[in-house]
Amino acid sequence: MATTALTQPEQTSDANETRLEFPDNRILIDLFGEFDRNLAQIEQALGVQVVHQGNQLALFGEPDAQARAAEVLTALYQRLESGKGLTPGDIDAEIRMGGASEKTESRAGDQMELFQGGRIEIKTRKKLIEPRTEAQKAYVRSLYSNEMAFGIGPAGTGKTYLAVAVGVNMFIGGHVDRIILSRPAVEAGERLGFLPGDMKDKVDPYMQPLYDALNDFLPGKQVAKLIEEKRIEIAPLAFMRGRTLSNAFVVLDEAQNATTMQMKMFLTRLGEGSRMVITGDRTQVDLPRGVTSGLKDAERLLTGIDKIGFNYFTAKDVVRHALVAKIIEAYDADGPVG
């Protein structure tokens, strides 16, 4: 595959400032963002001041901060130059992940592309997905290289979102025949039997995050058609009993709310040609007091088995609103809830 050389800006620096000069003013408009909000995000994160005039940028601050800001601005310019968009999340990802020294590599054929600097992109029908932290990158690698992978950590770290993205990628690439997404339908203050409608109506609210993820990666009409054809299934964990799941990409979300017996039942559904992903947050167990989480037992029993990967996330991997990470850190510092 032919590659296009990306622009390296002309750069000069001394102890007081670093100067960058880029060739295309139109790309710089997108790099700066509306009312220079992208530059403001970089300034605040890295502790530098960015002054621009025409196609030149002057960076002021500590020498290390200048160098880091120059790397980030260059990488973001190259991203725009290659035809990709730029969001606040992309800028945050570059600030957190950029400058990695990992070698470019390829794994799982056309399922995943790694670019210079160890970048990973997951292709879906609607968008390209890029892991934004080192833990997310390691997790995605684990999803492709292991037949069973666990993603464990707080809410907002992309555990389920990335798993579903990889599942869609493998499905549209013909590596699996179907996608199966499941969650324990654990009651939290409102009993299923008291909700209106049939069983689907009762359990769909529990499954909504999985529908949301799918609709991010596939057109809505295609999702509906694939569900109708049973090539995508979204069902409570209890519905998995007695089945053998072959040639499928299977995700169990909110696994901390599965009992030990449910977890064993689920894990032993794995069939030929399938991949299985289990995600959960050990701090959000909704099981009755005294009931052991199956996720905890799975960690204890399965760590070290070949082809089973365990990946862990912290508040630093949260990719929702910046306040979410601070909220998680505050609760973690206060000790266990309950």
Task: Give the rounded overall mean pLDDT.
Answer: 82
Sheet with most strands: strand arrangement: 11-10-12-13-9-14
Shape: elongated
Strand content: 15-25%
Q: What are the segments in which pLDDT stays under 50 over at least 5 consecutive residues?
A: 99-117, 188-192
Describe, in plain words, how this protein is organized in 3D.
It contains eleven helices and 14 strands. The chain is an alpha/beta fold and 338 residues long. Strand 1 and strand 2 (17-21) form a beta hairpin. The radius of gyration is 22 Å and the shape is elongated. It starts with 9 loop residues before the first strand and ends with a helix. The model is unreliable at 99-117 and 188-192 (pLDDT under 50).
Q: Any chance you could write out the topology, listing elements then pairs?
A:
Elements: E1 10-13, E2 17-21, H1 25-32, H2 37-46, E3 49-53, E4 56-60, H3 63-81, H4 88-97, E5 106-107, E6 112-115, E7 119-123, E8 128-129, H5 134-145, E9 148-152, H6 159-172, E10 178-183, H7 199-217, H8 220-228, E11 232-236, E12 248-252, H9 260-267, E13 275-280, H10 294-302, E14 308-312, H11 322-334
Parallel strand pairs: 9-13, 9-14, 10-11, 10-12, 12-13
Antiparallel strand pairs: 1-2, 2-4, 3-4, 5-6, 6-7, 7-8
Helix pairs in contact: 1-3, 2-4, 3-4, 5-6, 6-7, 9-10
